[in-house]
C-alpha cells in the first residue's frame, strides 16, 4: 500500500465498509479495474477527519457505512470505457433510470478525473442499528433525487441528509451538490495528484 494511505476499516474501529466497486453491484455491472480487495483506502489526513465525523455520529446514536474512498485512476478510465460502450440496460433501472449513458458526463455524474483518485474524497451514509438510514435514494443513483435539497423528499429523508452533511462539515468535509453521499476533505493533502495504485 502506498505510504500515507490507510485502510479505513482498520483505522476506524466500528466503521462499516461495503466496497461497491470491488463487486458487480455498481452502475457498470462489473468490478472496476484496480479494485482487487473489499477495502476502502484514504490518505491518512482524510482518515483522521473521518474518524472525527464517525465519533460525532456515534455520539448522536448513528454508525457509518463507506461505499468508496480512494479510487485508482484506472478505475476512472474503466468508467469512461463503460460509458462509451453500447447500452445493455443491465444496471440502468437502479442507477440511472431517467438518463441515457451519454448524459452522465455532461451532467457531472462521471468525469475523466475524479477527486477520489486524490485520496481525500469519501462516499458514505449514516446507519442506525447497522442499517443505512433512508436518504431518499440509493448510493450512485444518477438522478436529481440524489441532489442536496432535491424536491419530493420526506421530512425524515431531508433530516437524514442534513444530519450527514452537518457531521461531515464538522470534521472538515465539503459536500458535492449532485450526490448526497459524496464528501471531499476541504484541506486536501494532494490536490493536484491523481494516484493509480491498486487496492489490494
Topology:
Blueprint: E1 5-7, H1 8-11, E2 16-17, E3 41-43, H2 44-59, E4 63-68, H3 73-84, H4 92-95, E5 121-128, E6 131-132, H5 155-170, E7 173-176, E8 179-185
Parallel strand pairs: 2-4
Antiparallel strand pairs: 1-3, 4-5, 5-6, 5-8, 7-8
Helix pairs in contact: 2-5
Q: Could you please say which CATH topology applies here?
A: Muramoyl-pentapeptide Carboxypeptidase, domain 2
Number of strands: 8
The total count of helices amounts to 5
The biggest beta sheet, please? 6 strands, mixed
Provide the low-confidence segments as ranges.
Answer: none
Tell the overall outline: globular
Give the SSE order as H and E letters: EHEEHEHHEEHEE
Total domain modules: 1
> What is the CATH C-level name?
Alpha Beta
CATH architecture: 2-Layer Sandwich
Rg (C-alpha, Å): 16 Å
Beta-strand content estimate: 15-25%
Overall mean pLDDT stands at: 95
List keywords for this structure.
200 residues, alpha+beta, Muramoyl-pentapeptide Carboxypeptidase, domain 2, two-stranded antiparallel ribbon, 8 strands, globular
Précis, in short:
This protein is α+β, with helices and mostly antiparallel strands. The protein has five helices and eight strands; from the N terminus they run βαββαβααββαββ. The longest helix has 16 residues.
Explain this structure to me?
The N and C termini lie close together (8 Å). Strands 2, 4, 5, 6, 7 and 8 form a 6-stranded mixed β-sheet that branches. Strands 1-3 form a two-stranded antiparallel ribbon. The protein has one domain (5-185): 2-Layer Sandwich (Muramoyl-pentapeptide Carboxypeptidase, domain 2). β7 and β8 form a beta hairpin. α2 crosses α5 (155-170). It contains 5 helices and 8 strands, in the order βαββαβααββαββ. The longest helix has 16 residues, at 44-59. It is globular and about 45 Å long. The model has no long low-confidence stretch (mean pLDDT 95). It is an alpha+beta fold.
Amino acid at each position: 500500500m502506498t505510504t500515507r494511505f490507510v485502510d479505513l476499516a482498520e483505522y476506524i474501529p466500528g466503521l462499516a465498509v461495503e466496497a461497491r466497486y470491488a463487486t458487480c453491484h455498481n452502475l457498470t455491472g462489473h468490478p472496476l479495474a484496480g479494485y482487487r480487495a473489499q477495502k476502502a483506502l484514504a490518505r491518512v489526513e482524510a482518515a483522521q477527519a473521518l474518524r472525527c465525523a464517525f465519533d460525532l455520529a456515534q455520539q448522536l446514536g448513528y454508525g457509518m457505512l463507506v461505499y468508496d474512498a480512494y479510487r485508482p485512476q484506472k478505475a476512472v478510465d474503466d468508467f469512461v470505457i463503460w460509458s462509451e460502450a453500447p447500452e445493455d440496460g443491465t444496471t440502468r433501472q437502479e442507477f440511472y433510470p431517467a438518463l441515457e449513458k451519454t448524459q452522465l458526463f455532461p451532467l457531472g455524474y462521471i468525469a475523466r478525473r475524479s477527486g477520489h483518485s486524490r485520496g481525500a474524497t469519501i462516499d458514505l451514509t449514516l446507519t442506525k442499528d447497522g442499517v443505512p438510514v433512508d436518504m431518499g435514494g440509493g448510493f450512485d443513483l444518477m438522478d436529481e433525487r440524489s441532489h442536496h435539497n432535491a424536491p419530493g423528499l420526506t421530512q425524515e429523508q431531508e433530516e437524514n441528509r442534513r444530519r450527514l452533511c452537518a457531521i461531515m462539515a464538522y470534521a472538515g468535509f465539503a459536500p458535492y451538490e449532485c450526490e448526497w453521499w459524496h464528501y471531499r476533505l476541504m484541506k486536501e493533502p494532494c490536490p493536484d495528484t491523481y494516484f493509480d495504485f491498486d487496492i489490494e
